[in-house]
Design goal:
Elements: H1 4-14, E1 20-22, E2 25-27, H2 30-33, E3 47-50, E4 55-61, E5 67-73, E6 79-83, E7 101-104, E8 110-120, E9 123-133, E10 138-141, E11 151-156, E12 162-167, E13 170-175, E14 181-183, E15 192-194, H3 199-205, E16 211-213, E17 219-226, E18 232-237, E19 245-250, E20 260-267, E21 273-275, E22 285-292, E23 298-305, E24 310-317, E25 323-330, E26 343-344, E27 349-354, E28 361-366, E29 372-374, E30 381-388, E31 393-398, E32 407-412, E33 420-421, E34 430-435, E35 441-447, E36 454-459, E37 465-470, H4 473-480, E38 488-493, E39 499-505, E40 516-521, H5 539-547, E41 551-555, H6 566-570, H7 579-591, E42 597-607, H8 609-620, E43 627-631, H9 642-649, H10 656-662, E44 674-680, H11 689-700, E45 706-710, H12 723-738
Parallel strand pairs: 40-41, 40-42, 42-43, 43-44, 44-45
Antiparallel strand pairs: 1-2, 3-4, 4-5, 5-6, 7-8, 8-9, 9-10, 9-11, 11-12, 12-13, 13-14, 15-17, 16-17, 17-20, 18-19, 20-21, 22-23, 23-24, 24-25, 26-27, 27-28, 28-29, 30-31, 31-32, 32-33, 34-35, 35-36, 36-37, 38-39, 39-41
Length: about 750
């Protein structure tokens, strides 16, 4: 439900508009938005730092079609073909391998290639792996007699002697020298999962690759999940055969059994497994993160309790499996898993992000947990961009003055100095950075809500542009020819005085003396913001609505992850769907008093969590909203998964009223306006069941509505020819008929 940003990504990939010029302006339509690529910004692809940052590599397609790996000197820009695509032709084929990703060995003698990929849940994490020996130019497929596209997460050992990978829920290593394949686990099955994860761990904890090489290459630490007893949700495919096909997915819904999880270390030579003695019921705690602790003798483990209001940090001994709880982060609501755990001073300290003092701040914690030092001040750190260990600086992303924007700062770790803003003040908006290992360079991506991505290679810390990697100029000039108004930001206050950020688009020939219908675009859940000063793929869709005569608005309610302090984000705990829809209603009431707003024609739409919010809006506030579109909504919070829903709502056994009052289905009887439900029947994330329970409740109360099911489509509703165009055509048709 939280992945609304992924739903916008598919629009990014197709946000293209062919145009005809009339009176200096460009006219566009829904068909051309999804039909041509005139307005598609080129992609630069993945850039990988090389040689510590002295150079970088990227994939480039040649004129003859093969993919070359090209190396660029970071300082001069001089390039050379490092790997000619023609050297990647297997003996069984006359075509080079199509590279999805690649990794060089630390000694630069081997190249590991991922290809022929297959989707597993969200991402293409299953496929084939090949090794190219750069000294002999020999190309070899890994996996022995493995079936095509069955290997996962192949990774070179630090000593470059082995490649480790997951195959059919077991962990293997394969010798680079003699092709020997060693199976390290033997109990993998449909329910015993080694080295990777079940559906809910991947979806809600963002875990896919479930094993880690020790720094000395002699051991592998890995997760094992036991999914026995997890409830099975059966999806039905009715269209690919004359008989329906059942698609079972193990999916733990609120209050039900989770997979048991444990972490072990297996020694390559002996194949002996030592399991860490992490306390607590393995089905009612989550091992959310694990890695080697800057040592080949210890791992560091983050364990969340089921309520997810405690994150217990353990150091585990690889030899014995004994663990020591060195630090525990707690919160009355929920705590976040820390991805920005970076070791410092040869493993004496590690970084930590916590909201325990009211802001998301960076702390330095000693290895034994006895020393805790706060690094940043009373503002939210969005993420750590890197730690310059040589010069003892921490680089981080924050925006203390404007929650819609993002900037790069740095601060001395040990000296009492103020943070230093590195992003130039004239580059306002949304800034992201991929910093080189030597901290001399970075890839800088800048955009605003009205201007596309501009990507430059810059030097640090002075932020001088070295060279442009992706220009926004061509696309910006085309946008300038559109007869549209720019998106404008505004602020609005709730009935209890909390200030919220919003943006609006008004029609091209806007006249303040006229009355306009308004469409709210909403998400509102704790996983994403919609009000950001960055380029979004939804730009053209919402501009098209404005062209049709609508004012389009979005407001971030309390509970969205804006850098406005802990209280703003976590006051929604236990009342998801309740406080957020109240904030949206307050904003709607204020906007309905704008002189040019027709308060009798206000609509709202959203996808996933935004679909749930749209239902809550039109059901709970039927006199405010005339029409609503809910795409892939959670109709009843009890039907969503354990990790996400229990994180923000607590346990069903202790908060039954919250689950009842936050679920749209329990207010369906109050519907007065027009409603369109859209859902993919093959949605493994928010099951189509959610829409069906809402349908049943509406039927029970004799409420008329519209519904558009998309057979076998997943949560993004993108599979199949013409699907995007049909989804948005359906929505546009609904607005034009009902608003």
């Amino acid at each position: 439900m939280k992945k609304i940003n992924l739903l916008i990504l598919f629009i990014i990939s197709l946000s293209s508009i062919s145009f005809s010029q009339e009176n200096g302006n460009i006219e566009f339509s829904l068909e051309t938005i999804f039909g041509s690529r005139e307005f598609t910004q080129p992609r630069i692809g993945s850039i990988n730092w090389f040689n510590g940052g002295k150079s970088y590599t990227k994939l480039e397609r040649s004129e003859t079609g093969e993919e070359n790996i090209v190396k660029y000197d970071t300082k001069t820009g001089e390039s050379e073909i490092l790997i000619d695509g023609n050297s990647l032709i297997p003996g069984v084929s006359d075509k080079p391998l199509r590279i999805s990703s690649y990794e060089f060995s630390s000694d630069l003698k081997l190249l590991l290639i991922f290809t022929n990929t297959k989707r597993v849940w969200r991402a293409n994490t299953r496929g084939d792996y090949w090794i190219l020996n750069l000294e002999t130019n020999k190309l070899k497929k890994l996996g022995g007699d493995a079936k095509p596209s069955t290997l996962m997460f192949a990774t070179l050992s630090p000593d470059n002697k082995y490649v480790g990978y997951v195959r059919e829920n077991n962990i293997y290593v394969e010798s680079v020298l003699d092709d020997e394949i060693i199976q390290l686990t033997n109990d993998g099955s449909e329910t015993i999962i080694n080295g990777t994860f079940d559906w809910v761990y991947e979806e809600e904890l963002n875990l896919r690759n479930g094993f880690r090489w020790s720094p000395d290459g002699t051991r592998i630490a890995f997760w094992q999940l036991d999914a026995e007893g997890i409830g099975v949700f059966n999806m039905i495919n009715n269209t690919d055969s004359i008989y329906s096909q059942i698609i079972p997915v193990q999916y733990p819904k609120v209050g039900t059994t989770n997979s048991a999880c444990k972490v072990g270390v297996v020694e390559i030579e002996s194949k002996e497994i030592i399991w860490f003695k992490v306390p607590g019921d393995p089905r009612n705690n989550y091992i959310a993160r694990m890695d080697w602790a800057e040592s080949s003798d210890e791992v560091i483990i983050q364990q969340l309790n089921r309520l997810q209001n405690e994150n217990r940090v353990y150091l585990g001994e690889a030899e014995t499996g004994n663990v020591n709880n060195i630090f525990t982060d707690k919160d009355d609501a929920w705590v976040e898993v820390v991805d920005d755990l970076i070791w410092f001073k040869d493993g004496q300290y590690f970084t930590w992000l916590s909201e325990k003092d009211g802001w998301n701040q960076v702390y330095l914690i000693s290895r034994d947990g006895m020393e805790i030092k706060k690094i940043t001040g009373e503002y939210d750190v969005v993420s750590i961009a890197g730690i310059d260990k040589l010069n003892e600086y921490i680089y981080f992303i924050a925006s203390p003055e404007n929650a819609t924007q993002r900037y790069l700062y740095r601060k001395s770790i040990f000296k009492e100095e103020e943070k230093e803003l590195l992003t130039p003040e004239n580059i306002s908006g949304y800034n992201t950075y991929d910093i080189a290992p030597n901290f001399d360079w970075a890839i800088h991506n800048h955009s605003t809500i009205n201007s596309p991505n501009e990507i430059n290679l810059i030097s640090l810390p002075n932020h001088d542009i070295v060279r442009n990697l992706l220009s926004s100029e061509v696309l910006s000039k085309k946008i300038a020819k559109l007869n549209i108004n720019p998106i404008e930001f505004f602020k609005v206050s709730t009935s209890d005085g909390v200030e919220l950020d919003g943006w609006k688009i008004v029609p091209p020939s806007f006249d303040k003396t006229k009355k306009y219908p308004v469409i709210f675009y909403v998400y509102g859940e704790p996983a994403s913001q919609t009000v950001l000063d960055r380029w979004m793929g939804s730009f053209f869709w919402h501009q098209l609505l404005a062209k049709k005569g609508y004012i389009v608005v979005s407001v971030d309610n309390r509970g969205t992850p804006a850098p406005k302090g802990r209280e703003f984000r976590k006051c929604v705990y236990g009342q998801i769907g309740i406080l957020a829809s109240s904030d949206q209603a307050d904003a709607t009431k204020v906007l309905s008093e704008w002189e040019y707003v027709d308060k009798e024609r206000i609509g709202i739409w959203g996808w996933s969590g935004g679909g749930s919010m749209s239902l809550n809006a039109i059901f709970r506030y039927p006199d405010l909203y005339k029409s609503a579109i809910a795409v892939a909504p959670v109709g009843d919070q009890k039907l969503y998964d354990t990790i996400y829903q229990e994180r923000y709502m607590g346990l069903l056994s202790t908060n039954p009223d919250g689950y009842r009052d936050g679920s749209p289905v329990n207010f369906a009887h109050q519907l007065k306006g027009n409603l369109l439900l859209i859902h993919g029947t093959g949605d493994d994330n928010v099951h189509y069941q959610n829409t069906e329970v809402v349908i049943n409740k509406l039927i029970e109360n004799n409420k008329l509505f519209s519904v558009m099911p998309y057979p076998n489509r997943s949560h993004g509703i993108y599979e199949g020819f013409n699907t995007y165009l049909h989804v948005y055509s359906t929505m546009l048709n609904f607005w034009e008929k009902n608003l």
